[in-house]
Amino acid sequence: MPYFNGRFIERIVVLTGAGISAESGVPTFRDADGLWEKHDPMTIATPEAFQRDPALVYRFYNARRSKLAEVSPNSAHESLARLQREFAGDVFLVTQNVDDLHERGGSGQVCHMHGELLALLCTKCGHGDYTHEDFDASSRCPGCGSTGTLRPDIVWFGEFPYHMDEIEARLGGCELFIAIGTSGQVYPAAGFVRLALARGATTVEINRELSDVTGLFHHQRRGLATVEVAALVEELLAY
Ligand code: OAD
Ligand code: ZN
After folding, report:
1. Is the CB of residue 152 below 6 angstroms from any atom belonging to ligand 1?
2. Atom of ligand 1 minimally distant from the CA of 190
3. pLDDT in tens, 122-163
4. What pTM does this model have?
């Protein structure tokens, strides 16, 4: 029977952020040397930025997409995949990350609330597709054949994250909520801990440092994701 801290756990929700992929060599956003230190997100990660300078936005995401080929999942991704496979209850994984390291780490279910680097979207016909290739304003939509209508399928600032109904339903029905490697600065994800608490769930944060919402968690595990996630998963599978 799955227990955590003496409590029976049937349903777990795990939220991950850039910190879980940091040790794979994917830069985070807000740490020193992070992506938003080198670039102003308002000139890249907004619909207005894309209208103003699409070439810059395509270049930024093409570069990040091609970098995916150089990185591999780490033991934190792999441990979560093992939890999803072996836990006797339900484990719902929601990530703010747009990389594919959870999938490559073996996770069968991954909810990408901020979209995916490997996904494109046609703003004209709504066609969605996966690609490892660069694309830009000269690329043709595989759905309607138009050019100049494809955008990275990434949720930008000012846009509404994907799958919110399902995520809120899962948070409203879990006994354990685990947040890993996220700064707690971007909503709605930063508010998930409050939804889990309102439901009476136990909450655990894994982070190398304090986040903006650290104080809301029952348990805080300060350390590297590769170490702390593996240890927590061992505990959860030990019963
Ligand atoms: P941030 O860059 O804001 O935060 C990364 C967090 O990971 C920080 O709290 C770090 O302390 C922690 N961290 C870094 N390395 C770690 C490690 N090895 N082990 C454990 N923790 C570590 O990234 P997010 O919170 O994911 O949105 O950012 C949220 C959203 O803001 C992103 O999804 C992105 C960005 O704008 C979009 O692109 C739509
Ligand atoms: Zn189209």
Report:
1. no
2. 25
3. 999 999 999 999 999 999 999 999 999 999 999 999 999 999
4. 0.97
Q: What is the number of the ligand closest to the CA of 141?
A: 2
51, 6 contact by CB (below 8 A): no
Q: Which amino acid is at 159?
A: E
